[in-house]
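Marked as duplicate of an earlier ticket. Keeping the data here for the record.
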Amino acid sequence: MKIEGKTIWVTGASSGIGRAIAIELAKSGGRLILSARSREGLQSTQKVCLQYTEMAEVVVMDVAAESSIMEAWKQVQETVDVVDILINNSGISQRATAASTTMAVARQIMEVNYFGAIQLSKLVLPGMLRQRSGYIVVTGSLSGKFGWKQRSSYAASKFALQGYYESLRAETADQQVQVMMVIPGRIKTDISLHSVTADGTQNQKMDKAQEGGIPADVCARKVVKGIIADKKEIIISGFERLMITIRFLAPWLYYRIAAKRDPNI
């Protein structure tokens, strides 16, 4: 899909991959709506984006709260007629065992990573279907392809996204509304610092693997190229992507690796 002139709503746009994607979309001429919880972070992203595009509106939103999403949607409708591209990028990760993670934290992860994403999709989808054009981009994870230690609820949310959006893609294929899953591996962002522990407090530690990950701007360029090329799924990672192949071709080896490997390296 062509980016120039399209109205694009980017969630999680205050930092990390979302910020980097927003900037790349601005460079390609997209008209942006930027959402996240942090107004300060969004305004920082907005300042950069406005160097490249004429529109970069800030709409503060908490994807874990249905009322916040509906208020944000009201603001979006007052600003634009239709959202051409939705970038569902908001998310939180986890650094805790399944046994120690409280149900409140498990639900929080699902609200942010899964329910928030599908609520936004259901809001923009009718407009896309009416104009028979649209693109929904969803940031999944390698953890949505295979399980890993200390990622149980996070992996569950990403597996759920994979299933939901593969189904949606099939349903809208003949109506010119496309869906692309982005499957990042280790990207150099602060996601491990802000990931939640068993009781919901922030981890405040950078994973060694994260420190050596792919730069966020490199990831963002691949995402934008994927949109332009009408891709259905793109995997952005280093050698860790081999685990997908191992999981399906040699599951016994995957089980052994997953049981023994330190989850944070």
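See parent ticket for discussion. The domain at 7-240 is CATH 3.40.50.720 (Rossmann fold).
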